[in-house]
Every structure is written in C-alpha cells, then in structure tokens.
Amino acid sequence: MKVLCLHGKGTSGSIFRSQISSFRAKLPSDIQFDFLDGPFRSDAAAGVDIFYSPPYYSFWEQDGVDAVRATYNWLTEHIAKNGPYDLALMFSQGCSLGSSALLFHQEETPHLPPPFKAAIFVCGGAALSVLEEMGFHISAEARERDLASRSALALQANSSAVLAQGSDRWTGLENRAGGLSEAELRNEITSPYRINIPTVHIYGSKDPRWAAGVHLSGICEPTKRRTYDHGGGHEIPRTAAVSNSIAELFQWAIAQSASN
C-alpha cells in the first residue's frame, strides 16, 4: 500500500508528516507514505513558523490554470518514476493539486489509470480557475465566499492570533457560509462530470475554508464519497476521538482503493 502525501502551501513534506502523526500511529505499519515537497520555495504559512523551521514550499506561486497545469505535469512525472500510488492524502493547497490532477486526467487521458485509486482531502478545496476552464458553473456567491474565506484564514492563522488565542482563534467564516447546509453549498458549483474515484472529505466547522471543502466534496461522485467534520479549524486536530475517526476513514479508503 503506497500513499502519496501532498502538503499545504508554506509548509513541507516533513511538516505534513508531523501534522498527521496522531492518526498515522493508528494505521498498519506496512503502509508506505511518500511525502513530497512542492517545487517552489515559499514563505511560511500563517503561524507555521512558530512551530516548524524552514524550508517551506508551495506547489505553485500563482494559482492560475497554467501554473496548476505545469505542476500537474511535474506531479505526473513524479508518479511515473515513483508510483503507482493506491491513495493520495492531501491538505489545503495539496487538495487543489490533487483534485486538479484527477480532473485533468479525466479530461485528457481517461483511457489510462488515474494518478491514484482513492483520495483523502483534508481542509482544502478545488482550484476554481481549473473548474471554470473545464466547464463547471461557479455561482457568484461561491466566488465571493472563496475570497472572503482566504482573508479570514490569513487573519485567524497568523502568529499573533496563535499566540494570543490558541485554538480559540478559530471562528470559521461568519454564520458558517451564510447558514447554508452542506447540501445547499454543493449546489453552488454545478459540474459536467464528477471525480469518479472513492474520496474522503475531512473539514472543520470552525475553518474559514469549510465551504471550500464542502464544495470539493460536491464535485466528487456521491456514491463513492464519505465526509467528516472534525469540528476544528484549518488543522488536523490531534485528539484521540478525531484521530480514531480519521484512521477509520483512512482504512475505508484503503479498502476502496484495493477494490477499485
């Protein structure tokens, strides 16, 4: 069992290894994790430099379609040399890369096996620029919410907020995306097709980017999808309850990849 691990912007493969240590300890020891570093050096993500030393990386410097596609080509080369992968585990910007890779593959090379057989997305959304290019309809409300959530995340995750408030800094986006339910949020982005491999979507109700994670779940096949709200912010909580739940979902994804 081989797992591709894609970190968040302004972190690294080694940081991601640390971030998932609590639930990883509950998984079988024979799983092989491949923690990539993004191809670009980056400033630290907000608050990350308090806990982790450099270097920090990102998967692209600007998130236009051309930049995402270039990194997809870079990732495809890595997979060809080091894969195949049964599962991809992604956080934040890594989710944008992983979902884009699946969509590009589905559009361009559907006759070939997908880059991985199952996917776990944690606290991240799809790249809206990629969705738009592929014919997805994104509502004006979804666009506005995406911009507002990025600003809110930067404020709630910065060093001063971490030091002053700790976990209490997470307030989500006001009224949890206007009070919309997950089902209503999924209807804000309509798709000509869906990501068709088994997927797990893990997000936190206090994360300003909560809606982005729900939106991503909406472009994945519902019959092959599982979701879990860990109740926290833009993070992977290390409590026993959350770690146990994520480990169980990980095992489900492993089983699905074996039969996919």
UniProtKB/TrEMBL annotation:
Keyword Hydrolase annotated: yes
Entry's Gene Ontology molecular function annotations: hydrolase activity
Organism superkingdom: Eukaryota
Pfam families: FSH1
Keyword presence, Hydrolase: yes
Segments forming domain Serine hydrolase: 1-244
Coiled coil: none
GO CC annotations, alphabetized: cytoplasm; nucleus
Entry keyword set: Hydrolase
GO BP, sorted A to Z: antibiotic biosynthetic process; monocarboxylic acid biosynthetic process; secondary metabolic process
PANTHER family linked to this entry: ESTERASE OVCA2 (PTHR48070), SERINE HYDROLASE FSH DOMAIN-CONTAINING PROTEIN-RELATED (PTHR48070:SF7)
Name under which the protein is recorded: Serine hydrolase domain-containing protein
Source organism (scientific name): Penicillium coprophilum
